[in-house]
Amino acid sequence: MENFVIRDSSQEVPRVFVAPSIDEAQILSGLSYTYHSAIPEAVTSDPNTECVLGIDEAGRGPVLGPMVYGLFYLPLSQHRSLLKDKHGFDDSKVVKPEARSQLLQKLCKSSSDLYKACGWATRVMSARDIAAGMMRPTTRYNLNAQAMDATIDLIKEVLFEKRVNVKEIYIDTIGKPEVYQTKLERIFPTTMITVAKKADSLYPCVSAASVCAKVTRDAALEVAYKAYDTEGSSEEGWGSGYPSDARCVTWLKGNMDPLFGWGNECRFSWDTVKTMLDNRDAALKVDWPDPDNEDAGRMAEYLVTASEGKKEASNELANWFGTPVTEVML
């Protein structure tokens, strides 16, 4: 039980398993990162073993914390029998939080059948990186594009770097399933790909990926909250991190720095925080120089350009031993 974060039992808040997919240093630094488990024995014992792979995400809508993509694979022959029938993997929103943690803990235990048969990975997309992409001044990198790239990268790493023989891929959709599926089929033409709505409730491998993503995000929120409160839990403090959660909004209002806003855990591209920062009574107002105003002083006027510097240095050296003869004669 050492890997659980235990909270006050009076608060009806689940315990969170801190999986190996949690990198505290990266999370606290606001960095995105990827974790891969070891390739399972069922696959390494026979590299030709045909596998099925599922992908799902957790934390798409929150204003606080990362968005996490989970990937899960295992031999095709054990897809439903091991995941659904024996261990009861289902949509992570249906499985109770404590049960999710227990499932992932089993997956990380070397003596379990899940550990020996299954491999998994997560891509933790930090709030800072999500917001930075969405707020680019020129080419906006929207959340759908970021999610698509995370999905493609995870699949490539398993297929081409880990060299797992994946025959079928199932993914919970973002946007229109047919558009998403067509793009992936062009990238992975030799693999059967199915992109569907509610895939996490239809395909056990997607259900398992959903559990990996959700438990990792829950634990990441706990880590991020340590920067503010070392004793309480994130659930008790900022709640779920969703804008619709009153605890989240209350926490944002009570912990906003008037100049910098919040830390790496915040998605500054969300309207919730934009509105708070635009409130004149809450945040400091910064007046930036107008580049179109000719009367405004420009930094360049106070600097010597490289060419001017070289010219002055050249003249100084040329006159070091006196005035050139040609100039005296004139």
Kindly describe this structure.
The structure is a single chain. The protein is α/β, with parallel strands linked by helices and 330 residues long. The chain has 15 helices and eight strands. The protein has helices at residues 24-28, 41-44, 79-86, 97-108, 113-117, 127-134, 143-161, 177-187, 199-202, 204-225, 234-237, 246-254, 271-278, 306-318, 325-329, and strands at residues 4-5, 16-17, 33-36, 51-58, 67-75, 119-125, 166-172, 192-196. The strands form two sheets. It has a six-stranded mixed β-sheet with strand order 3-6-5-4-7-8. β4 and β5 form a beta hairpin. α4 (97-108) crosses α10. The chain is globular and about 70 Å long.
Classify the beta-strand content into a percent band.
Answer: 5-15%
Overall strand count: 8
- Tell me the strand order in the biggest sheet: 3-6-5-4-7-8
Uncertain spans: 1-14, 302-310
Give the overall shape: globular
Question: How many angstroms separate the termini?
Answer: 95 Å
Please identify the structural class as seen in this structure: alpha/beta
Rg from Cα: 27 Å
Query: Biggest sheet, open or closed, and with what strands and sense?
Result: 6 strands, mixed
* Assembly context of the chains: single chain
